[in-house]
Design goal:
alpha+beta, 5 helices, 5 strands
């Protein structure tokens, strides 16, 4: 009986430990590091790219979906890759200059250079629902007086674009 009970007990304990680890919430910094790995690590068959949408809040996802819908296969409000702050990127320059640092429990600061002056992106998070979700990106480029909200800029652009589209259809 002891021979059966001991391995069974070990299995139960190890399964519980595995389950606890698999349910561990990723920290904001871990999420941001994953996002930038798309640009700093080679893609291969064993490593799927990290999808920003998997970590975006519902509100941010809705805005991104609206932009995609209004774009109709073209560019609408988002005409650049907001993670790397450009349309193209230099892998080696990003790798060499990339710095990712937790600012506080809800913010991660990323600085890097990508074929332009230094960029700073502050990722804002909400970690209250059991998973950390990106709620906004504050974008600042060298020479800018202050950072601007990606989410608010996108929201304003979409509202303006919808008004223009509605006025065009009423003519």
């Amino acid at each position: 009986m002891k021979k059966i009970l001991l391995p069974l007990l070990a299995l139960v304990i190890s399964t519980g430990t595995f389950a606890a680890e698999s349910q561990k919430t990723e920290s904001p910094e871990e999420i941001v590091r994953k996002l930038y790995s798309n640009y700093t690590e080679p893609q291969d068959d064993n490593r799927a790219p990290v999808d920003f949408g998997d970590y975006a809040s519902d509100e941010l996802k809705a805005l991104l979906a609206k932009d995609e819908q209004l774009a109709g296969g073209e560019l609408f409000c988002i005409d650049y890759d907001f993670i790397i702050q450009g349309q193209d990127y230099d892998v080696e320059e990003i790798k060499r200059t990339l710095k990712i640092k937790t600012q506080d429990k809800d913010s991660v600061v990323v600085t890097f250079k990508n074929m332009m002056p230094m960029s700073t992106v502050v990722y804002k998070f909400d970690c209250t629902q059991g998973k950390c979700k990106i709620t906004d990106l504050l974008e600042k480029h060298e020479g800018d007086a202050k950072a601007s909200s990606f989410k608010e800029g996108l929201r304003q652009c979409l509202e303006k674009g919808e008004k223009e589209m509605n006025s065009d259809t009423q003519k």
